[in-house]
User: Fold Polygalacturonase from Hevea brasiliensis.
Amino acid sequence: MTLYLARGAVIKATQDSSNWPLIAPLPSYGRGRERPGGRYISFIHGDGLSDVVITGENGTIDGQGDVWWSMWRQRTLKFTRPNLVEIVNSRSIIISNVIFKNSPFWNIHPVYCSDVVIQFVTILAPRDSPNTDGIDPDSSSNVCIEDSFISTGDDLVAVKSGWDEYGIAYGRPSSGITIRRVTGSSPFAGIAVGSETSGGVENVLAENINLSNMGVGIHVKTNIGRGGFIRNITFSDVYVENVRTGIKIAGDVGDHPDDKFNPNALPVVKGITLKSVWGEKVQQPGSIQGLKNSPFTGICLSNINLHGVSGPRSTPWKCSDVSGAALEVSPWPCSELTATHQAATCSDHI
Assistant:
């Protein structure tokens, strides 16, 4: 089927939370993402679909999320807020030429899906709107996100695959994800992997990305208890302007669903390539901090210029528990990446 929004068409979500049915949590999350138990169904929700198109002439899907943001701020939410669009267990999905605005929670969430194309979309939410991620491919494969503008209150694109012990048990990775020609701004990350990566994330390419007024340009994030892996991730031709941190790869980000997570379930992060990244007005160029008992390896940086803000010297790179190589990186990164004997692991990439 095709949902077609003609020019000027607007679909508005009700603001009365009693009109939103509750549905079961996703098995790879074990509970609602922000509250225990079930969650409110997404405004546009699909399960077990194939060959479905959401498109039009830039009509609008408006989540009218401000009542939900207020409940979150006042801590009066009983269950996890609804996404604007969630497609579950589906294949061959196209979402294009639609404006998504004011989502109560995440905007577009394909989960347990394959063969998904999201292109020519505009996603808008106020900078201070909580958790209004743009597009979050989750335990999904063969996903293409391209030619879109996203300006929200959280990560513009975040690749995920389940949460701690529930994601480990479900065991469905995200793989074969291409993100290209995406422009936007956010107080959080431009292109992110994580932090929920317990099913694993691999084979991701993000290229031709243009970001301004950001918290973090590129953010790869995970935590103890997540387990899983993050491997073969490439970021290329990224421009960032007016950003707090240019590049961040971290092993200490994100909360846990409950106290049943296994603190010894350590993520494996290897083979992350960043090339041709240019930044202006960057407060801190980068921070790469692995885990003591699971160091991040094969972190390969090349042709990276992250120019600081005027005035006193900007903060240097911060690194720990990481190995890899750096070539033509300014400001010069940490010694862990510049030791020549490490370069072999990166020679294929840079």
Q: What stands out?
A: The two ends are 44 Å apart (CA to CA). The longest strand covers residues 229-250. The mean pLDDT is 96. The chain has one domain: 2-348.
